Amino acid sequence: MRRVRPGTTSRGGAGSRAAGEERGLTSVATGDSVAGGESVDLPRLWHITLSVSGEQAPLKEVRRALEQLAHDHPFLLTSRYADDHAEIRYWEEARDLHDAAAVALRLWGEHRQSAGLPPWEIVGLEVIDRATYHQRIAEGYGPPPASPVGVHPF
């Protein structure tokens, strides 16, 4: 079965465009109605800060594990670490805060074996929407932008 965007057809016809004609872009905000009056919940971006802590582990192993996590989870912005705790910051796309938090709370456990992460527990979680993140940055009291991106010691 082929999927086709609404208003277009797969082989010419009423919704097709002439050669070289560009299609105009439209957007629908979260919770807006589309044709027919049905409500649509589109995913939004959420800034996640996940803090973990536990027994001391060799720094080289912690760094290697966080680098593997960054490879496995490409939206990872930055990780900071010490021998007994770490902080991971990244963007998550989710329908709402509850979904973003649920995914974030599963991240460490789901990648623990594949990335070789230490057996630490989650001790903190912050989930904020994109607008709040940018507002905090603009007002000077939010977390500094993830620069440089990557895995770094505290």
Automatic annotation (TrEMBL):
Species whose genome carries this gene: Streptomyces thermospinosisporus
Chain positions covered by the region annotation Disordered: 1-34
Protein name: 2'-5' RNA ligase family protein
